[in-house]
Design a protein that fits this description.
single chain; alpha+beta; four-stranded antiparallel sheet; 15% helix; 29% strand
């Protein structure tokens, strides 16, 4: 499945510990129905795409923090 992220507005995660380990996140669509995550050092590289529900579950899991 492909998603059009060409107009996505990316921002760096507040959870990235340093400039060398940054990820960027973009919320796309009405009510952030699609969430993209990419490596800020490689903005043209691969993007992980989550549904808004999957992203909420990830944030609530405590896995990353």
């Amino acid at each position: 499945m492909s998603f059009d992220l060409s107009n996505a507005k990316w921002f760096k995660s507040s959870k990235s510990p340093s400039a060398s380990e940054c990820v960027e996140v973009a919320f796309v669509g009405d009510k952030a129905r699609i969430v993209g995550v990419r490596d800020s050092k490689d903005p043209g590289g691969p993007v992980l795409v989550f549904s808004g529900e999957q992203w909420d579950r990830f944030l609530g899991s405590g896995v990353w923090g």
